[in-house]
Amino acid sequence: MSMIILPVSEAEVEMRPPTGADDVQLLEMTGDPVEISRAWLDRLARRADGSPLEAATLPLTDLEWLLLEQRRLLLGDEILARSRCTAAGCGTPADISFRVGEYLEHHRPRRPSQVEATDAPGWFRLRDSALMFRPPTAADLAAARRTSNPERELARRTLRPETLTGGERRRALRAMETLAPCLSGEIEGRCPECGAVARFWFDPHRYVQRELKYEAEFLYEDVNLLAGRYHWSEEKILALPSSRRGQYAELALRGWN
């Protein structure tokens, strides 16, 4: 188990390594990337007191933070993203690398001096006004997308009072972005051929899920190999942590007993 303290809610979360059964679930999940992250993290994480995580109730910043921390635990700190130079007449492949720890530190939430917590869990207020707000959660986002006007529904769920002037709404959104910044964003690098700036849009949900699914795709080969080599049942193999299953598969490939 690895302990992680989330930056917005300050919840203490324990993360366990995935098993083969978790890998199967990940490979079979389809649909909205945020919902996939929520379901995946609910399988692997729990609060420090042993209660369920309920990832849908976390601020989106915390959800993305936890996903990136899990990526760092499973696959290492360095991320290598591949893009192409968009300069006219170039199109050279460009690698953009960065470290998860540095990326998270750069996007670490801060509480503005004029913002204070309220008695209502998850809600904050601006000290010099009656304006209250709550960082949106995955549940808020999912509910808003089911309406004809997602932006209005999201505001209805996360801002109080509902009748705000344009200036008040902008103040709340600025404070919210500082308190709970979005971890999706543009990453910049330099084209090795022409020297132009190469840009890559980094979405933690899509990127990490793509990586984890790539790693999980070896599951079926591992099950086939280990079942044939050691005569283990599928249930026993899928119960193994993914990293340990990989070690056994490597040994089997070498022909060791």
How would you characterize the overall build of this protein?
With 257 residues, the protein is α+β, with helices and mostly antiparallel strands. It has 3 domains: 2-105 and 185-217, no CATH class; 110-179, no CATH class; 220-257, no CATH class. The protein has helices at 20-28, 33-44, 60-75, 100-106, 138-145, 150-158, 166-179, 204-216, 219-230, 234-238, 242-254, and strands spanning 2-5, 12-15, 45-47, 78-84, 93-99, 115-117, 124-126, 132-133, 159-160, 185-190, 197-202. It has a 4-stranded antiparallel beta sheet with strand order 6-7-8-9. A hairpin with a 5-residue loop joins strand 7 and strand 8. Helix 1 (20-28) crosses helix 8, helix 3 (60-75) packs parallel to helix 8 and helix 9 crosses helix 11 (242-254). The longest helix is centred in the N-terminal third of the chain and has 16 residues, at 60-75. The radius of gyration is 22 Å and the shape is globular. The model has no long low-confidence stretch (mean pLDDT 90).
Give the helix/strand layout.
Blueprint: E1 2-5, E2 12-15, H1 20-28, H2 33-44, E3 45-47, H3 60-75, E4 78-84, E5 93-99, H4 100-106, E6 115-117, E7 124-126, E8 132-133, H5 138-145, H6 150-158, E9 159-160, H7 166-179, E10 185-190, E11 197-202, H8 204-216, H9 219-230, H10 234-238, H11 242-254
Antiparallel strand pairs: 1-2, 2-3, 4-5, 6-7, 7-8, 8-9, 10-11
